[in-house]
Amino acid sequence: MLFHTWEFMIFFLIVFPVYLFLKKNNRYMNTWLLIASYFFYGWWNPLYLILIIISTLIDYCAGIGLSRPKARRYGWLIMSMVNNLFLLGFFKYYGFFAANFNELASFLHLGMRAPLFDITLPVGISFFTFQSMSYTIDVYRNRLKVETNFIRFASFVSLFPQLVAGPIERASNLLLQLEKEPEVKKKMISDGLSLFLVGLFKKIALADFMAKYADKVYNSPGEFSSLALVCGTIAFAWQIFFDFSGYTDMARGIAKFMGFELMINFNNPYTATGLRDFWQRWHISLSTWFKDYVYIPLGGSRKNKFHTYKNMMLTMIISGFWHGAAWTFLIWGTLHAVGRALTMELEEKNFYQRIPRLAKQIFIFAFACLTWVYFRGRSVTEANGILARIFRWDTAGRMEIPVVMFIMIGIIWIYELMFNSSSRKILELAPVRIGLALVMLVYIAFFATAAHNQFIYFQF
Amino acid sequence: MSENNNPDQNQKKDIKHNTESEIATNTVILSMKEWLAVGISFIALIFFLIPFVWSIAEKISIDDNFRINQDYNEDYWLYKACAEKASRRFPVLFLGDSVIWGRFVQNEETIPAYLNTELCTNLFGNIAMNGLHPAAMYGLIRHFGNKVMGSKVIIHLNPIWMNSIEEDLRGTEEKRINQPRLLPQFTERIPSYQEKIPVKSGIVMERMIPGLLLANHLRLYYFDGKNFSDWVIDNPEKNPLSCFNFSINPLQKTNNVRTMRIFTQDWEWIALGDSLQWSYFQKTISTLKKNENYIFIYVGSINPYIMTPESLKKYRKLQEEIKTALAKNGIPFYFCPDLPDVMYADASHQVKEGYAYVAKLLAGDSAFRQWIK
Lengths: 460, 373
Hints:
The complex is a heterodimer. Chain A is mostly helical. In chain A, 71% of the residues lie in helices and 0% in strands.
């Protein structure tokens, strides 16, 4: 059930009034949220509800186990992590490892074969397993008190606005909000509407539009000129940003209606002036998750520089692999890790500070685009081929660059640059805000496509 | 890394951090009052202002032998505008399906065009549409036909739509239906029409909101039937604004002549009392009457030479039922007889000589002549 469909509208029109009626009683509220969330998730495939229930049950038990005075704390933690990582590993990565193992075995003339299954990736598995796992780790670290109410804990793991594509919420934020009666004020409703409108516009007016050009170029890259490949990559860069941040905005908007605060997940990442800055702006809930639960446990920056670099690079490579079970995602993560390692010191230097802000922003955007080639490419060979043709600057081939689309991208980029500068005051004027909202609504009504594309991040 | 061992304190710190952050990473955050302003302005824009301005700006020209281009068969904004123009220009409007629209013939070879020639007038305007079966015709008149209010209307009944359960839209299996956007979506059940609720809701909204009807017109007329983003991708270097010339001529240009072979048909023919299409035809008449239109009914001819004897027998029975029912209605009508074999292009369409012949027969009918006066 996608947020921008009639199905969701009907679902929400039923869920919301009942929620408002029940929210005074915490037990009823959480029970209703849980029913709604499971229905929302089960709409894709009711069978996969089993996975979310298993993950919830085991982490709930682990939490209870960890709170016992003479508990084998480490054992409970391991049980939770093994369960979540097994679910993720089997459904998301088994096929990848099995295929690669078989190729290696064949290369080495070994008579072994790993069986291959036709496994469909359950929607949002990467999100809910991470969210659930973070709870157990926080309880283990004594950063969080244990949740004894199973319904409330299950509501936290499966809360429908953020269940399938994040933001990956921490128990310290969301679980605490589920303990008390959420306040649904006028301000929350108007903020929620604002977030939802922007998210809807990002998804159906921008992301789906950019996707058409990116798909056209990337479906037959050999036919296009280097300039078209560059433009196709830029279109994909904006597509993935609008797609994912649009979903997050809608999720946050819906949560706001219900009185919940979800974290900001994207903060205009293409205005970043450094790679560190980029990762503080891109998929913030995932970046901070990896920082808190991978980078810091690995040692963070507590030892020498070598260990800091090693930990950082390892975290970024794993983060890349989180996005998908393919070599392309590993390379994408590795490129960011290398880029981050190369610029970590540089970003602190006076020289770097003196470079004009716009030049740094363009450089970071160009680097991000370069790495997106691997993210979007169907294989490493294809991505390598695209990059080779871009750097050779091959003028032969189709151009077909949609000028209107790039004018729109230009306008949006200028808007984002203004948002991050002193000119923001102009954008904050009421007539400008009202005018922008109207333009978005009219554009959606007149020009937005009727076909609903899936969100990219659902596949992660 | 220093760890605080007090979970409650840690939790409070996290919450504080979260609520201190900004609401969004853009400035389009509106208060309730501002949302009210946006809502009112948006409704004004898509219900009234944009459609009104567009309808003034867009100049539609209608020629003597006008008929709407079949490429715009589902452009009901254009149809509405053309019907309005036609009702001003022609004293009599001819409404029907592809038989009246003139499938397989040119603009000057349709029944309305031949009637004008026959009677040496410019009385008859062709507002027929391809694939306009009675149920769709009812939707067209009900939702988009208010502009033909008060006119003299000849309404065509093509019995072909009653030749089987499927054509009568009562088949339980889903089939491709002509003009589905003109059918009743929720108020009445049509067994053959099994569209999803979101699609049906979209159709109803389009009927209710003129801005959405206009959006569909922009897509069909200016953007080659594609939505805006598809058009931009397919025409990468074109300026979309240059598409809007505001001076449009939706006239059909040329038309293909029939060359296919006609096979023998064993149609079952539906009894009139059971027919869904007939019930919609009657509803169309009621709606036209309510709109103070002065109506004449023209019942088209079906090719009897392609029917099996059993099928022909049933068809004759249906013809009698239609005649009786129309006579009871008190509305003048003309029942087209069987034509010579060579005058049929297929089951219900005629070749140009056939249309000329039909126009001659109709023009010579006393009830018709009386009605025109």
